[in-house]
Amino acid sequence: MLLELQRLSVPPGQRVLLRDVSWQEFETILQELGEHRAARLAYDMGTLEIMTPLPEQAAQSPTDDTPQSQNTKK
User: 48: domain range?
Assistant: First the structure.
């Protein structure tokens, strides 16, 4: 079965696992996606993980406005 990468949709913050992927197939996928891809790929022993990061604003943690405790030791 041939998978067309253009048909694969991974929502932001999610991941897809593909099993039984050869190293040659992984290299082909990397070439097809190019260097300036939004998705991150990881390959381990025939399993390909495709991850898409959250948008930059959603990925940032809110600032902590809690005041720091004062050191009372003298």
Answer: 8-54
